[in-house]
Amino acid sequence: MIKLGNYNTLEILRHTSVGLFLGDTTGNDILLPNKYVPEDYEIGATIEVFCYLDYDERPVATNLEPAIVVGEFKLLQVVDVNEYGAFLDWGLEKHLLVPFSEQRNKMQERQWYIVHCYLDEKSNRLVASNKLNKFLSNDALTVRVREKVDLLISRQTDLGWEVIINNKHKGLVYFNEVFKRLNVGDITVGVIKTIRSDNKIDVSLQPLGTKLLEPAANKIFETLSENDGFLPLHDKSDPELIREKLQMSKKAFKKGIGVLYKARKIEIQENGIYIIA
């Protein structure tokens, strides 16, 4: 079966005046237009393509790489708004439609939005929605505490940054545990910190427990190396200054310099810390 809105590995069946026809193992075929046909190909060989619908809503293949595939959440820009809805730039010739019914608030041209791409079963069209909660659920969790997960920063709340976990669940990173600049649409990794009784998920952007020590020490040592072997920081430095310089908490900083000091890699003086040559 050829999956629309996703990558498919298909067999090259035949060449025609309009391009290559590609097929799957169940007898379905799809056109790869001439402009996307590679210079070297062989009938019977396989090729990976992205399949979607052209301007006439006909299935078509391309070797262009879209910014989003079915089932994903991504930050995309609106390039046009008309009577049908908003259209997003996703890297393909035909823009991705967000119908008005799938807009949380009316989308504006040139603005960026987190959206979910899906195949509408009624119309068999590829569309997007920024009503994200329709596509996220914490009812049946597929993650566990201390598991490393993929994150998409989705929005800022009063408590912290809301994140989409593994394209499935919703979680939160609290402001007091964020030690680097974040923006909506950022893709990063994190660790499941807590799963509450109501299945709400707290996420950490830092390794948990003792795993924090080595990365913190490495971060401090790398920053020292980039600053001629000196940083004007010590155990009495203001926490905000430490956060600004190193994107970590004062607690992590103190543990990190403790590791480096015991390893005889740094010297701690009144005005800061020095690499030991």
**Which percent band covers the strand fraction?**
35-45%
Count of distinct strands: 18
Overall spatial form: elongated
Q: Count of DSSP helices?
A: 3
Chain oligomer state: single chain
| Class derived from helix and strand content | mainly beta
CATH class of the largest domain: Mainly Alpha
Could you state the order of secondary-structure elements as H and E?
A: EEEEEEEEEEEEEEEHEHHEE
* CATH fold node name of the largest domain: Arc Repressor Mutant, subunit A
Query: Which CATH architecture of the largest domain would you pick?
Result: Orthogonal Bundle
Question: Which sequence of strands runs across the widest sheet?
Answer: 3-2-1-4-5
Structural commentary:
13% of the residues lie in helices and 40% in strands. The protein is mainly beta and 277 residues long. The chain folds into four domains: 6-62, Beta Barrel (OB fold (Dihydrolipoamide Acetyltransferase, E2P)); 73-133, OB fold (Dihydrolipoamide Acetyltransferase, E2P); 148-205, OB fold (Dihydrolipoamide Acetyltransferase, E2P) (Beta Barrel); 210-275, Arc Repressor Mutant, subunit A. A hairpin with a 5-residue loop joins strand 2 and strand 3 (29-33). The chain is elongated, with a radius of gyration of 25 Å.
